[in-house]
Amino acid sequence: MSEGLKSGFVTIVGRPNVGKSTLMNHIIGQKIAITSNKPQTTRNRIQTVYTDSEKGQIVFLDTPGMHQAKNKLGEYMMSAAKGTINDVDLILWLIEPDTKVGAGDKKIAELLSTVDTPVILVINKIDMADGAKVGETISAYKDLKDFAEVIPLSALHGEGCEDLLNTIFNYLPEGPYFYDEETVTNQTLREITAEIIREKSLHALNDEVPHGIAIVIDSMKERPGKNAMWDIEATIICEKNSHKGIIIGKGGAMIKKIGTNSRYEIEKLLEAKVNLKLFVKVKKDWRDSDFELKNFGYKKEDLN
């Protein structure tokens, strides 16, 4: 490993739906974090690793969108988001082009005012705004925080992402890699598979079922033999019997759609054929149960 390499931790914060997961997926070059136009899509701190053999390594912490917690799951998500900002070398605050600073962003500004970590203001979705609006956005936000840099980009199209990466490396300390060059995430295959199914469920269900769904991978086994094949059984957990009916759909149409869309993505992930079976179970008010939250992988000890 050559001298002069830099490495460090960078967290991405912002309101729900500003494109945090899309940005991270683009930089990493493969799907790790699920995306949706619904709030609370990302529920855990997902760690991904970007390695440049000439510059060094960036470990990204993608956090849940900051919002007002309404249940224990919401509290967990906010703890995950807040818990990262003190332990990183750099903070990316992702916003959309907007000439007015909303209440959610004012809350984030208050939180960021409590740390000395450098903050880069990243204005995403510039493909949906003209230069004048981007300039007005910078003017609206400039008094909230003494930003180290302001970078406009489009995470969806990759415009400005190279500039962002170069700027990040400028702020990282010199040091060796934290992970080997092949590592792209701390998520296991089971975790990514569960997240893919949850994403496809959110997309298919639109607004019919609120965010009270979780995914449990019951079994995930690779068949022996020359032709790669995986057998996966997973359960979609919902909070009400009426939700269960919507998820299954008329004649099983909805759950079949979720399964088909999920299988396509999982096969790309595993680079193999997949036999996917989905089930639906009702766990009333699971988002307010410490036991169920832990059971579904939201562990408070992971935030420490």
Rounded to the nearest angstrom, the distance between the terminal CA atoms is 31 Å
The total of beta strands comes to: 9
Please state the oligomeric state of the protein chains shown: single chain
Order of helices and strands: EHEEHEHEHEHHEEHHEH
- Largest sheet composition: 6 strands, mixed
Arrangement of strands in the largest sheet = 2-3-1-4-5-6
Count of helices? Answer: 9
User: What's the pLDDT, averaged over the residues?
Assistant: 80
Q: Any idea what the shape is?
A: globular
Low-confidence stretches: 33-44
How much helical structure, as a percent, in the residues? Answer: 25-40%
Tell me the β content. Answer: 15-25%
What's the gyration radius in Å?
20 Å
Helical/strand content category: alpha/beta
How is this structure best summarized?
By secondary structure, the protein is of the alpha/beta class.
Relevant terms:
33% helix, six-stranded mixed sheet, single chain, three-stranded mixed sheet, alpha/beta, globular, 304 residues, 9 helices
